[in-house]
Each structure stands twice: as structure tokens, then as C-alpha cells.
Amino acid sequence: MHKNYNKKQQNTKPHHTINVIESAIEKQSNILSTLAEKLSLFDVPKVTLTVVAIMTLFTPCLAWECEQIPPFYPLTYDQFEYTFSAFHKIEISEMIDICIAGEFRPVYKLGNIIIDMTTTPHIETKINDTNIDDCKPNILYTNSSNNDMFLRKPDPLTLTKDDQNILLEIYSYHRNFNYTCSSVMEVEMTIPEGKLVPTSSHRKRKRINNPDKTGDDCDELQKLADTAGERIKATNDALLLHQEMFDATKKELEMANQQISVFEDETKTAKRTIESQKNTIEQNKQTIVTITDQLAKVETSFNQARRTIESQKDELTDYKNKLIIKNDEVNSLETTIRLRDATISSLKNEIQHYNENLRNTQTTAEGAQNAALQAEQNHARQISKLRKEHETTITELERQHKLNMDNKISELTKLHNENIQNAIQIEIAKCESQRRHDAKQWNTETEKFKSECQLQRDAEIDNMKKIFDEQIKSLMNSVQFKVEAMETDDIKDGNQLLAKLKNSQKKSYSLNNDLKYVLRLNLQILRHQ
């Protein structure tokens, strides 16, 4: 019964705990999805406010609490930067030569971390900004680990919804890892196919189906279940806290949207004001033209009035009798003229004021144009001057270099010829000395060899003479015939006598050949002498 009790505890309690954990995680995932949909995370005009809301909900006040480092994206975990304002999609390339880039490829930049998605597994690189502007328009970065340099295009690429999902997946994985704080033996090391990070930072345990476990195992499983229950409770509390934070953030978002609406209304009002001011300016221009026309007409009338006055003055002498009658008319005309003069003066002042404004505007525009033209001309003159100075410097340097080269070549040629002549004289002296020494040694060796050859020849000749004398003597002795009668007692047959004669003839022939050889050898020795 004890075994059955243990088996019952193993089959029900841990499975229930695991199911509760999985349901809590699924519930948390659903809440996150709901938050993302309600906040319109990927609505482009409200990205900034959405980022603030998400970071307020999910980012702790300081850094991660877990001291363990996750196996995936550890540099990003250690940097603790997940805001969309620091997340960019850029194009980088290794610097193959000074300020010369190779092939650019798209990567993600999060703070000071570059995440390369073109490799498997994905590579994190911590970078440093060099603040060097020599490679403009590209930006120069260095790898903080090995000081390798690479270039970045200045304009970032547009982030899509999938790109923003990458940052959310990495943050969700790191937050889950910080919450579970799994050890090295418990952390999940595999990534499902098609995913960027593991679905859970904690490795799932296999179910225990061994019925032979003792009660201590049940107690341990009970402790694990209690721990899981506490974690689930903490997760629920965190979810409630997140819900409250979400409500507060939603209110802030509504207020921010209202402020945006106010800003948009103010922008529209400002646009309408600008348009009305433009219309007012156009009306003022038309008014200036109208006033100018009116002034011309008034001046014409004034001239006509003056001519009339002059004619009337000329006729004044003729109309003295009519002066009393015409005084009232003259006074009225003078009053009218004074009023017109005042009107003309005011109009002239206004025209002068408008003309001054126009002249100031034209002067400002002409001054800007003249300044730009003057700057351009100065720049062109400066470039021409620098180019001429550069060409003059290059010509002078080339002439000086050529002159120095000619002088150096002449000096080296002269020194080389002198060295050659000296070396030739030294070699000639050495050769003459060696030749005299060799000739002297040759004469010595020749005399010595001649004396040795003379002695050896004399010895050989003496020896050959002795041999020759002996052979001649032997020959003479062999060819002498005995006077006394031949002893034929021992020769019983004529064939024996014939054989003996043939043998004597052969010996005579051999001695004759030896004599000829000795004579030829003596002749050769005499010829060599």
C-alpha cells in the first residue's frame, strides 16, 4: 500500500503542478498578446508612446536580478537595453582597406550591440564608436573584443513588424530567464525550428514513473510542487500588478493622444495663420501698387493744379477787378491743394516706408546671393591658387629631384668608375704577381721534372741496353752451330730432329720480334727528347 500511495502521489501532484505552470505561462502569453493588440504596438504614428508604455510595463527599475547569464544573446542581457529608440536596422561591412568597405549586409543594432541574423547561430558583437569622420558618409566602428574595424551606412533601414517582433522575443526570453534564474544544468539549450529563442528558459523535466521510489522522493516532489505554486502565485501577483500598470499607462496614453490632438490642432491653426499672413502680404503688395497708381494720378492732378495756379497768377493782373469775387475760390482751391499736399506727403511717406522694406528685403536677398557668390568665387580662387601652388611645388620638387638624381648619378658613376679602375689595377697587379710566381714555379717544376726525366731515361736506357746485350748474347749463343758432329745418338727418329729445328726457329723469331720492339721503343724515347 505504501508503494501504491507513492505511485498515486507521483502521478497526480507533479502532473497537476506542471499543468498549472504551463497554463500560467500560456495565460501570461495571452495577456502579453492582448496588451500588444490594445496598445497598437505597430501603429507607426504612435510608436514612441507605445515604446514608453511597453518599457514601463516590462522593464524593471535597475538591471536584471538573476546573476546567471543566459546561453542566447548574453551581451544583450548584460547590456539591459530593450527600448525601440535604441533598436535600429543598419547595413555594415568589414573594412577591407582604409575607408574601403566590402559587401554590406543588414544587421540589428541595439545600443552598443550588433546582432547578425545572417549567420547560424546568430552572432552578437559589442562595438565602440570611433568618432572619426575620415570615412564619411560611412560611420566607422570597432569591435571591442578584437579591435576589428567595419563601416556602417549612415541611413538606417525601415523597421517592419517582424523586426520589432525580434526585439520583443529577445526581451521576453530574457525576462523569463531572469524570473526562473535557471542554473547551468537546468537552462534550456535548444531552439525550436523557426524560432529565434527557446519557448522557455527552463528545461522541462521528464515525468517520474518509477513506482519504487520512497517517501522521501514524495516529500521532495511536494516541495517542488509548493515552490512551483509559490512561483505561480508570484506570477499571478505580477500579472495583477502589470494589469494595474497597464490601466495607468492606458490613461497616460489617452492623455498623450489628447495632447497630440491639441498639437495637431495648433499645427493646423499655425498653418492657417501662415496662409493668412501670406495673403496679407500679397494684399499689401497689391495695395502698394494701387497706392503707386493713385500717387501718379495725384501728382498729375497736382501738376495740373499748379499749371492752373500759374495761369491764374498770369491772369491776376487782368482780373484785379474780379479779385474780391475770386478770393473765395482761390482760398478754397488753396485749401484743397494743402489737403492734397498733406495726402500726397502721407502717401509718399507710406510709399517710402514700403520701398525701404522692399529695398531691405532685396538688399538682404542680394546680400545673401552676393555672399554666396563671393564665397563661391573665393573658394574657386583659393582652389585655383592652391592648385597653382601645388603644381609649382610639384614642378620644383621634380626639378630638384631630377637635379639631385643627376648629381647623385654623376657622383656614383665617377666613384664607381674610379673603384672599377682601382679594382682593375689591383687585379692586374695581382695577376702579374701571380703570373710571375706561376712562371717561376713552372720553370722550377720544369727543371726538376726534366732532371728527373733525364735520370729516369738514362736509367731506362742503361737497363734496356743491358737487356738488349743479354738478349743479343743469348741470341748469338742460340744461333751458333757446333763444329763437332751432331749428336744423333739420342735422336732415333727424323721427326724429333725436325721438331727441334722448328722450336729453334720459333725462338729465333721471338727474339727477333723482341729486338724490333726494343728498337722502336728507343726511337720513341729519342723523339720525345
Automatic annotation (TrEMBL):
Record keywords, A-Z: Coiled coil
Coiled-coil segments on the chain, per record: 295-400
GO cellular component, one term: cytoskeleton
Domain of life: Eukaryota
Protein name, as recorded: Coiled-coil domain-containing protein 147
Organism: Strongyloides papillosus (Intestinal threadworm)
